[in-house]
Specification:
Belongs to the 'phage' integrase family. The protein is mainly alpha-helical and 399 residues long. 49% of the residues lie in helices and 9% in strands.
Length: 399
């Protein structure tokens, strides 16, 4: 009768015998983590001691082998999985440091308080589903961020054969009410320009450093390129050709600010397709030329927008300054990202969604449609002509 097949990490029946040296040898078959079955033996002065030594040898071998793969079991605490997951992220080096920090923050502040007292086997679909729905009652974004990190951590447990399936695969999707993207009209854009122009001219200036003219140029570049605020602040002198035919700006980086670290220019934008060269409309090219004239002779790698200390401007400070200046002028609710949506809507209305997506650096037009294009309520009036030809009254019949 054939011996039963061993599963990985297990051993068969132990046998002992007296060997020539007068000592006892304990032997067994052990299926290693490479799938191979090997003979393992240990010797001692008595049969019981030899068997004890053999089991210790097997335990040491098992701990060494599983430690190379994963030290977790279904009975491990969720917190142990979190630490293992963060270590795995660091080993892969596939996401940016900023995203890694965001993942850890969301895991520790949003997810851990709800799961820290559970073992992995206790985290099932029902518990995960209830947790995500509770988060959604607070906010859609909170539920979305919680869902991402919880799913990724549990997916690692599945990949390393700690769990048989990811309970997050069966959690109900979180829905939010459809929201139309905000886009500005040309009249609203000109009102914003007027408020910033008045502020930069020094009218009503009371104290503190005088405006340096950068805010207005930043807005013009956003309107002329559809660039994200971080991409605009990362533009170097070498990226600008304001006198070319046509004048262009190369968007090839972004500004990054992390807690406890100096703000710096990252040498790539948000995605690979976000790296692009954009032709400038006349208003943006003229604004860039004025900025370069004020900045003077810049090194090719110098940022064209920078602080008085010659350091990168932070996106948070520019957002705050824009909000304060416009609110002082009676205009509220404006964010830098609204200029990006405004540009996308204008390009779509006058050309095509494909061109709008290309300008924004999107890999999928669905993203552009869903988050950046303000839908026009007015249906193409061509429909009236088509319906008139199809169902218009025949004058000869009515007479």
């Amino acid at each position: 009768m054939p011996r039963p097949r061993l599963t990985i990490g297990t051993f068969g029946e132990i046998s002992t015998r007296l060997v020539a040296s007068g000592r006892y040898e304990a032997r067994t078959r052990y299926r290693d983590w490479d799938g191979q079955v090997r003979r393992i033996a240990a010797t001692a002065g008595t049969a019981r001691a030899a068997e004890h030594e053999l089991k210790a040898k097997i335990a040491e071998r098992t701990a060494f082998q599983t430690g190379d793969i994963c030290h977790l079991t279904p009975d491990s605490a969720f917190g142990d999985l979190v630490e293992y997951w963060l270590e795995d992220i660091d080993l892969e080096e596939r996401i940016s440091k900023t995203t890694r920090m965001l993942y850890e923050r969301n895991m520790r502040t949003l997810v851990m308080p709800a799961f820290e007292h559970f073992t992995l086997r206790e985290i099932g679909v029902a518990r995960c589903d209830r947790f995500i729905k509770q988060q959604a009652r607070i906010s859609y974004n909170r539920a979305k961020q919680s869902r991402v990190v919880l799913r990724l951590a549990l997916e690692l447990a599945v990949r390393h054969e700690v769990l048989a399936a990811n309970p997050m695969d069966h959690v109900a999707r979180v829905h939010r009410e459809a929201r139309l993207p905000d886009a500005l009209t040309s009249r609203e854009v000109n009102a914003i320009r007027a408020v910033i122009g008045r502020w930069e001219s020094g009218i009503d200036h009371v104290s503190g450093p005088k405006p340096d003219g950068q805010l207005g140029t930043i807005v013009e570049v956003m309107l002329g390129t559809s660039a994200r605020i971080g991409e605009v602040l990362a533009i170097r002198r070498r990226d600008v050709d304001p006198t070319g035919m046509p004048p262009t700006i190369r968007l090839a980086g972004t500004i990054v600010s992390r807690n406890g670290e100096p703000t710096f220019r990252q040498d790539h934008p948000k995605t690979a397709k976000s790296r692009r060269i954009v032709a400038l409309p006349s208003f943006a090219a003229e604004a860039v030329r004025r900025r370069l004239a004020v900045a003077g002779d810049l090194d090719p790698d110098s940022l064209i927008f920078r602080s008085r200390e010659d350091t990168p401007l932070t996106t948070a400070n520019v957002r705050r300054q824009l909000r304060q200046v416009l609110e002082r002028g009676g205009i509220g609710g404006i964010t830098p990202h609204m200029f990006r949506r405004t540009v996308a809507t204008a390009v779509n209305d006058n050309a095509s969604i494909e061109l709008a997506a290309e300008l924004l650096g999107h890999t999928d037009t669905k993203i552009t449609v869903q988050h950046y294009i303000r839908r026009r309520e007015m249906v193409n009036p061509t429909t009236a002509e088509l319906l008139q030809r199809a169902f218009g009254r025949d004058e000869s019949e009515s007479s």
